Amino acid sequence: MLSLPENLPQQCFDAELLGNSEASWAAYREAIALAQELLINHFAAQSQPYSGTSPEDLAATLDKFNYFPKVGKNLQQVLHTTAKIILNNSVVVSHPACVAHLHCPPVIPALAAEVLISGMNQSMDSWDQSAAATHLEQQMIREVCAWFGYGEVADGIFTSGGTQSNFMGLLLARDRFAQKHLNWSIQQQGLPPEASRFRILCSEVAHFTVRQAAAQLGLGEKAVVAVAVDTGYRISAVKLQETLEALKQEGCLPIAIVATAGTTDFGSIDPLQVISEIAEKEGIWLHVDAAYGGALAICDRYSHLLRGIDGADSIAVDFHKLFYQPISCGAFLLKNRLNFELIKLHTDYLNPESHAEFGMVDLVTKSVQTTRRFDGLKLFITLQAIGQKQLAEMIETTIKLAQATANLIKDDSDLELVNFPTINAVVFRYLPGEIELANSINQQIRLTLLGTGEAVIAQTQINHNVYLKFTLLNPHTTLTHVKEILQRIKEIGQVLSEK
Ligand SMILES: *Cc1c(COP(=O)(O)O)cnc(C)c1O
Prior knowledge:
4-stranded antiparallel β-sheet; PLP-dependent transferase-like; single chain; transferase; Pyridoxal-P_BS; transaminase activity; alpha/beta; Aspartate Aminotransferase, domain 1
């Protein structure tokens, strides 16, 4: 018998922890209701996508906080104070003039799901921490695999986003190559001597996380070979084949090709069908980075743009971009689930092998994370509530807007259009009278708009020249909004040109 100390101090923490008592529920209700009110009031007061506050002023305001108080304050007061400073100086992603980055306004069903996710606080690493959540996520992954034409032997895992999914694709490609061609287990033995000759091919406009993953995987950025793109910013299949031949001639070992379905700057989609044929013929792992363009898979009108994606060994898809999910939510998909064996580990405390006998699935074996949020629920609830048809309509609205925007820019002699959009990214620049000033003027146009807070637009570089970019993810943005922003760009450009 355990003997309990006579006077065990009894403190209940009911107001602090969500649990099973009236006091706890009351505190929770009040806290969540207030957070909602603050957010709604904030949106109601927003006339522009950013306050325009400078980094210095913002730092000065935030530095006044005591970040580690000994004694807490009333939550209402804390939320009010924090909301005033943080919310008022945040970027309003739902504002029609917030058109920078692949950063979406979140759909309401997913926000309700977030309340459940945080309140339940399931952890997706082992079945005994998540039960129903594990099964639901698995089924959701099966469904997502089917969108991309993957069959019964496919599998996948929810991830924090494209960065993690691309890392996983290249991790498995690397380990599979060593196992198959060198009879070497990198998981057990570390990198083989041949690793310095491993090469990864991708387009010159592929996402930087391909280089990042190569570095993290011990191959170095030098392992990434950029293949030239055509005028539509898509990998040239001819150049890809030539590069492969040249690398083999030099004694290099191409372990993976990364194709992009929706490049971050241009939304361009590499010729997936041809690339997958090349990868198959050469026996090289094909990873498709569909972080951005993967959403086209659910659009009847545009899914043909992804033709050939089912030939990929692995796919990265993000839900916190064109699927309108709150950050973070992405998935890594694997054509043949057996390849997950390459990274499988067992730990006695978390996922003992005996769990399988009891029909318990521990998702930790497929993830590079251990403790992991139940983000699959957001996508599930979104699809249940909104349905494929309407979600696709939201996406299609933004694609049409991008096309109309490109037409406006093309017909304007003060502006230069770079790409006709495949998805919803439009790259262009203001053309000043003196073209030598174009770089500094375009850079200043963007900073001016951010500084006044009237529009948040993006910037990129092509051949050392500065360009402006709209990523038109928000279905609330209309052509009228776009015209207003373009007008302001021209006005600011003109003033700067006359200086
Ligand atoms: C956004 C993006 C990534 C990175 O994904 P995160 O979700 O930000 O980690 C990778 N590739 C492409 C093409 C992207 O657009």
